[in-house]
C-alpha cells in the first residue's frame, strides 16, 4: 500500500523544501495543499481518516507547514480536533522548519558543552526557529534571553512560549548590532536566528568576549547572521568558542526531518511536535 503524505501549508503554495524532504523521508506520494486554515481543513482531514481500514491508516499521514508559526500551531490543533477513536492518522508540525531546525541547533550545541545553568541569548528570536529554540534551551536548564528589535514583540513571543511550554524567557529589545553585542556580554551561549541575509553581529562584537562558550547561526544566506563564522562550521573553535554554522548543524536537521517523516508511517496515532522532535534530535546528534 502506498504511503501518502498530505502537506497542509498555511501559505499560498506548499513549500518545495518540505515536499523534497518528505519524499526523501519515505513518502510514496506527497499531496500538497496551500492556504489551509482551521476553517477549511475539515474536509481534507476527513478525506485522510475515512478512506483506509484501521490497519492501513498508518500509510496515511499529515504534515503541517508554512511560514507562520502561529498559523501552523492553530492548524495543527484544528487537524487533531477532527480525529476521533479509530479515525486518525499521524501528524507532524514543522512550520518554516521551526521544530526540526531548532531541535538540530540546540542538540548540536548540547554535544559541545553544558546547557544547564548557562545564560543563553537567542538573537532575533521572534521567528519560528528562534521561538522553538529558545523554549528548547530553557527546557534544558539554560537561562534564556530572547531579543527583538521591538520589546513588545519579544515580550509577546516569550509569553506565547510560556503558555505553550511552561518556560520562562526574558525579553530584550536590541535594535541594532551594538545593542545585540551588549546583550551577549555576559552570555555563555549565543544562537542567532534572524532573517536570511541579515547580519546581527560583527566579528568584533564577540571575538574578544571571554564568557561566550558556544555559538550557532541558523542563517545560511550571506551575509551570515554572525560575522566571522562560516556556514560550514561544525563544532570547531573560533576565537576560543565552539561554533556551529547553518550547514554545520543542517545535516542533522535534514536527517531529523527525514526520520520524522519515516516515523509518521510506523503508526496511525503519532503526533510530532517540538518535544518529541527534540527528543529524537538528541538521540541522533
Please explain how this structure is put together:
With about 280 residues, the protein is of the alpha/beta class. It folds into two domains: about 5-95 and about 250-285, 3-Layer(aba) Sandwich (Rossmann fold); about 100-250, 3-Layer(aba) Sandwich (Rossmann fold), CATH 3.40.50. About 40% of the residues lie in helices and about 20% in strands. The protein has nine helices and twelve strands. It has a seven-stranded mixed sheet with strand order 7-6-5-8-9-11-10. A five-stranded parallel sheet has the order 2-1-3-4-12, sandwiched between helices. The longest helix has 19 residues, at about 245-265. The radius of gyration is 19 Å and the shape is elongated. The model has no long low-confidence stretch (mean pLDDT about 95).
Overview in brief:
This protein has 285 residues and is an alpha/beta fold.
* Low-pLDDT residue spans: none
The average pLDDT is 97
Give the helices and strands as they follow along the chain: EHEHEHEHEHEHEHEEEEHEH
Total number of strands:
12
CATH homologous superfamily heading of the largest domain = NAD(P)-binding Rossmann-like Domain
Query: Based on the structure given, which CATH architecture of the largest domain is correct?
Result: 3-Layer(aba) Sandwich
Q: Give the CATH level 1 class of the largest domain.
A: Alpha Beta
List the strand order in the largest sheet.
7-6-5-8-9-11-10
Shape: elongated
**CATH-assigned fold name of the largest domain:** Rossmann fold
Counting helices, strands and paired strands, the structural category is alpha/beta
Helix content: 25-40%
Number of self-contained structural domains = 2
Q: How much of the polypeptide forms β-strand, as a percent range?
A: 15-25%
Largest sheet at a glance? 7 strands, mixed
Task: Provide a count of the helices.
Answer: 9
Radius of gyration (Å)? 19 Å
Terminal CA distance: 32 Å
